[in-house]
Amino acid sequence: MKDLKQTENSGRLIIVAYRLPFKIVRENDQVQLFQNSGGLVSAVLSLVNEQEDSMFKSDDKIQWIGFSENTREELEGQSLANDSFQAHPVFINDDVNENYYEGFCNNLLWPLCHYFPSLARFDDAYFEAYQIANKLFFEKLDEVIQPGDVVWVQDYQLMLLPEMIRQKYPDNKIGFFFHIPFPSFELFRMLPVKWRKALVDGMLGADVVGFHTNDYVEYFLKAARLVSGYGNKLHYINMSNRIVKVDSFPISIDFGKFNNSYNDPEVALARSEARESLKEKIIFSVDRLDYSKGILHRLNGFKRFLEQYPEWHERVSFVMVVVPSRDTIEQYQNMKMDIDQTVGAINANFGNIYWQPIIYQYRSMSYSELVGMYTASDVALITPVRDGMNLVCKEYVASRQDVKGILILSEMAGAAAELGEALIINPLDNQGIADAIEEAFKMPEKEQIKRMTAMRERIRDYDVFAWTNDFFTQMIMLEQEHERLKQV
Ligand code: GDG
After folding, report:
1. Which of 120, 209, 338, 403 has its Cβ near the most Cβ atoms within 10 Å?
2. Which helix (H) or strand (E) holds 433?
3. In angstroms, what is the span from residue 73 Cα to ligand 1's centroid?
4. Is 31 exposed, middle or buried (0-12, 13-18, 19+ CB in 10 A)?
5. Residue-wise pLDDT tens digits, 222-244
6. Considering only CA atoms, which of 72, 110, 76, 74 is closest in space to residue 92?
7. Which residues of the chain register pLDDT less than 70?
8. CA distances (Å), 232 to each of 160, 225, 244, in order?
9. Does residue 369 have its Cβ closer than 6 Å to ligand 1?
10. What ipTM does the predicted assembly reach?
11. Strand pairing partners for 319?
């Protein structure tokens, strides 16, 4: 496939995502912009650089449309640009945002797509707000877009947007990427007919619709066929006047950044402090507080390990970091209480004055602490019951410049499709988790190195920059590729 770096594009890059690329902090009538260091922001930046052959001209800032946590009045007259990004805030009133973001997105789409249908709430007001909010994003884009601009729409908060753009701007290139699992049809069909059709048709407004794994692609193609009657040939959908490519693009991380952090003084310090203060074997996990992340299942698996393998008592420390998220919602508060109680019970029943089996923290970590723990631990225990991809496991592997450590990974994470050298477990199987921990602790170093090397090479080859490049190449080369396939 042709590399996009050789492909010219006259327009600018416009990203539309629920969140802006920086946090806006107001102080004494001035705003300060703190750019996020997340994967998407750095991936997108790689598309615009000084090189002559890069896809977008570096003198054009990346235009980024996203929801504003500030009011219109607060941002009036303020410059919302830094060297790389020009932000265009979308203002959504609290009532609409409640039904849109908390409602349709987080009380319906999130649980449904993560296979928790019993938690999904169906409410007409949610869908109405979802339509209104998507339209508000469109209206902002309408003020910004120019001929030749390429628009990249992100995630489940904006599924209706690609079609809205297509209707008014048939000639602009539009990409759409879905970051969470696209569910099997039996779950998707739980949505009322009108809603599911609007979502599928909305996404098909794009030229390229991307998912993390082939399974999600297959599920979406089935939905497109059964909901809207669109068949496909080799993942191309013919929409009479244009074609849509549906494909998998497994999101990745900045391999170089994590790999090169190994010897940072702060990382090295965090690593040695962890090794000194913890027991002989260290297990580590970190995730946002969410039922999809399988935190309670992980604790139950660890408990089974302590029950069945007493020879490891007083020799293991499980460092479990849970990052606060959505904890104003009752359901998340209840989940947090269950986690607190379970950790307390395990520590009380197995620990003693010399040994606390689980070191549990409910807070976020600095980057150095995070990589310090990635590189100090013998095992990363990652057990989501459902996860679109899961970047933590890729970061763990990339951080291990020493080529040691063992990844225990749930088969329900999108990343499991790429990281077959991990010890793959079913997160609902306590015994399976317990046995995997025991196997990891006994794994010879040679075997660890073999597995870690294979995983590291894969992530190094397909890092987040390759991911973006892959997506944009497919978008720009769409027609040529389709013509070529018709000849074969
Ligand atoms: C969604 C999908 C998909 C976490 N705690 C700390 C911290 N983090 C960083 C990690 C990682 C990121 O947050 C979490 O990424 P995940 O992929 O694991 O999970 P979601 O937030 O649920 O993301 C997911 C992703 O979108 C991308 O498409 O993989 O499936 O659910 O980068 O490092 N970073 C720091 N301190 C923390 O305490 N510094």
Report:
1. 209
2. helix 430-442
3. 32
4. middle
5. 999 999 999 999 999 998 889 99
6. 72
7. 1-9, 49-54, 57-59, 488
8. 21, 8, 9
9. no
10. 0.98
11. 284, 359
Q: Which residue from 213, 367, 392 has its CB within 8 A of the most atoms of ligand 1, so it is best to mutate?
A: 392
Q: For ligand 1, is residue 120 a contact (CB within 6 Å)?
A: no
Q: Locate 30 and state its tokens.
A: 């001035």
Tell me the per-residue pLDDT of 358-386, one tens digit each, with 9 for 90 and over.
999 999 999 999 999 999 999 999 999 99
Taken in order 302, 306, 311, 316, the sign of the CA dihedral is positive
Instruction: Return the half-sphere exposure (C-beta side, CA atoms, 13 A cut-off) of residue 16.
Output: 31
HSE (side-chain half, CA atoms, 13 Å) at 365: 22
- Point out the ligand 1 atom lying closest to the alpha carbon of residue 321: 38
C-alpha dihedral over 216, 219, 223, 229, to 10 degrees?
110
Which two three-digit tokens encode residue 94?
A: 């609290």
pLDDT at 109: 98
CB atoms within 10 A of CB 375: 25
User: In the numeric block, which tokens belong to residue 108?
Assistant: 């319906």
Position 5 scores a pLDDT of 46
Sheet with 243-248, strands from edge to edge, namely: 85-90, 62-67, 13-19, 150-154, 173-177, 208-211, 243-248, 236-238
What gap in Å lies between CA 488 and CA 481, rounded to an integer? 11
Nearest CA to ligand 1 atom 1: 179
CA dihedral 303, 309, 314, 317 (to 10 degrees): -50
- What is d(CA 329, CA 159) in angstroms, rounded to the nearest whole number? 24
Cα separation, 284 vs 377, whole angstroms: 6
Phi/psi zone of residue 475: left (φ > 0), alpha (ψ -120 to 50 degrees), beta? alpha
Tokens of 38: 């997340």
Query: How close is the Cα of 286 to the center of ligand 1, in Å?
Result: 9
> Taking a C-beta distance cutoff of 8 angstroms, is the pair 245, 208 a contact?
yes
**Residue written as token pair 């409640």:** 98
Per-residue pLDDT, 58: 65
Provide the phi-psi class of 326: left if phi over 0, else alpha when psi is between -120 and 50, else beta: left
Q: Quick one: which H or E segment has residue 409? A: strand 406-410
User: Whole-angstrom Cα distance, residue 289 to residue 362?
Assistant: 9
Per DSSP, the residues of 99-134 read IIIIIIIIIIIHHHHTT-GGG----HHHHHHHHHHH
Here the tokens at position 210 are 């991307």
**Coil, strand or helix at 290:** coil
Task: Kindly state the DSSP code that residue 61 receives in the 8-state scheme.
Answer: P
* pLDDT given for residue 53 in this prediction: 59
Taking the alpha carbons at both ends of the chain, their separation in whole angstroms is 15
> The whole model's pTM is what?
0.95
Q: Are 22 and 488 in contact (CB under 8 A)?
A: no
